[in-house]
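Methods — Computational structure assignment.
A single polypeptide chain was analysed. Its primary sequence is given first, followed by the predicted tertiary structure written as structure tokens.
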Amino acid sequence: MTDSVIQHSEEAPASARGGPRRRSRPLARFIARRFATAIVTLLVASIVIFIGTSVVPGSPAASVLGRADPEQIARIDRELGYDDAVPTRYLNWLGGAVRGDLGESTVATVQGTQSAIWGIIREPLRNSVVLALITMLLLVPLSLLLGVLAGVASGRWPDHLISTGTQVLVALPEFVVGSVLVAVFAVSLDALPSVSLLAPGDSPLAHPDILVLPVLTLLSVSAAWTIRLIRIGTIEVLKTDYVQMARLQGISERKVLRRYVVRNALAPSVQIFALTFQYLFGGVILTEAVFNYPGLGKQLVTAVLSNDDTQVQAIALILAAIYILINLLADVLIVLLVPKLRTQS
């Protein structure tokens, strides 16, 4: 049995499949179907978001102005379009979003000023993207290294050490991990700032010290899950017939790990990393609160507390679009890693 037969995930020669043109068609169809599904999903999400914010009782004008003149409140509601039917308001909002116009801040409009939503959330979105990307750039190699190591050394001391450490971190929520890191590195050692304060217009990359503790917090919690799941996937791959046959053929253990184990454990790990990346955008509210990090999660909390409907809608729609895009890219990457899935999806 040849090496190419053992490695079941590698593609057959192009000539055996009819050439590059036939090979590309299933992938193109797969991407087109996934893209169409993503568009429909985002449309449904936009409907849910808009209805969810529209059924809240009361009006933003009344919540901001308090006991103001009812006629003044009614006039502002008409200016904001709250007198229109919900379907009409939704179509107007969706049309603006498609054109890149997320509207004006409801609270600012009530207060007699104009403030574009995009201008408000641009910097928080950038800050969250920076935090998420740095965490992912560290998370992927760390999780693969420790997960594969624990799987290969299953039942031995490296596995016990890694599994115990990840089990402890899994049991701890973000605010506990963040608080411990602040107590150690900011209070006891006075080595890092305890809060991530940024002046308006400043980039977090210009102040890397404020990123260390938030990144460590997110990395600790996220890596605990991904390492454990990659460990399980590695153990399952090691038990497969083609890995055992590769070893019987005399292929070195390093080559077995690199060509067979890591590659075949990587495909299911892509979805794990995709879910983690989604969490880093939408689930970091507690982490941003602990460190006062000016990200999108903190901005969403501010918008909810101030009853700024248009800002809540815009942030929720952006987060939904990010989630759907990450899922789309993960699906495509999995199919690129496992070509036989192109005709099964």
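Note: The radius of gyration is 25 Å.
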